[in-house]
Design brief:
Structural class: mainly alpha
Number of strands: 0
Shape: globular
Oligomer: single chain
Distance between the termini: 21 Å
Number of helices: 14
Length: 295
């Protein structure tokens, strides 16, 4: 397989395992401290990677480019990642995978809004298929504690993908020209800093017991550290590399394989049931996502 294809498939596979571990960790660690833990540890990993590769820790860019990187990090790393963690807690892994099918239509929709990229008829049809598939597959299961958690979780997951799409596309030109690892390190640094500032304002005097919960639970590190290495570190690098070496549509097709991977892993490792209604919803949503990505 071409290197770009391998990166895109690798992103889907790494993210799938990370989401399963996130589901396990989410039973013990709330979304905000869980996201802060994985963003902080990922920052350490990418900085070490930069040092090992001998790449600079600072790159000279225009002030406007730095502003875009900061905005991208706050949206994609601090806000969207926290929304994903909150959605997984409410939906479980397999329904989260179904909601993840909103990824490809989100990329297409945001591309239309930001760059005026015209949506083809197949992209519109595909987007409708995704929405219909999520609606059909969104049913109450044993993993969902309250009825309202179903739709709140779906809205959180779908909203996270739209925010991620905005965050990544607004700096697409930068990570195509500059070091991919440096861009990742900068975004994770700003994301962690933004969450710390938010906690200072939101939880004054209670930073330790709110934001740093993950660091104070060594019994959970064997779940959270592999989750961090597979998800925010490897999956993010592979994901961005896929966009760097492939057209967005082709990368999105391979990325969408995470839906299949997650459902299979959730069945074997978490015991989540794969109902007929969920199966129909996943098939519809995958068809829609592939139509969007392939258009």
């Amino acid at each position: 397989m071409p290197i770009g294809d391998l990166y895109a498939v690798g992103a889907a596979l790494a993210w799938s395992f990370a989401l399963i571990l996130m589901r396990v960790a989410g039973h013990q660690i709330p979304p905000i401290p869980l996201t802060f833990f994985k963003n902080s540890v990922t920052l350490i990993l990418v900085v070490v990677t930069l040092l090992v590769l001998g790449e600079p820790l600072y790159i000279k860019l225009e002030p406007y480019d730095y502003f875009r990187l900061v905005a991208s990090a706050v949206l994609g790393i601090a806000v969207a990642d926290t929304m994903v963690a909150a959605a997984v807690n409410r939906l479980g892994a397999s329904l989260q995978a179904l909601a993840d099918c909103a990824y490809a239509p989100s990329i297409a929709f945001v591309g239309f809004l930001m760059f005026g990229e015209i949506l083809s008829s197949w992209e519109i049809v595909g987007g409708i298929c995704v929405l219909f598939g999520v609606f059909v597959g969104a049913s109450m299961t044993a993993e969902i504690k309250k009825p309202k958690d179903l739709w709140i979780g779906i809205l959180l997951a779908a909203g996270a993908h739209i925010i991620m799409a905005v965050g990544i596309l607004m700096v697409r030109d930068i990570f195509r020209e500059e070091s991919l690892i440096w861009v990742c390190s900068f975004r994770f640094a700003i994301g962690a800093l933004a969450m710390y500032i938010y906690a200072l304002i939101r939880f004054p005097g209670r930073i330790r017991e709110t934001l740093f919960v993950g660091f104070l639970r060594p019994d959970m590190w064997r779940t959270m550290v592999p989750m961090t290495i597979l998800g925010p570190f490897l999956a993010t690098l592979f994901w961005m590399a896929g966009f760097k070496y492939l057209e967005a549509g082709r990368a999105a097709i391979f990325n969408q394989l995470s839906t299949v991977f997650i459902i299979i892993l959730a069945y074997f490792f978490l015991g989540e049931k794969f109902t007929r209604r969920k199966m129909i919803g996943v098939i519809l949503a995958l068809i829609g996502a592939l139509l969007v990505a392939a258009s």
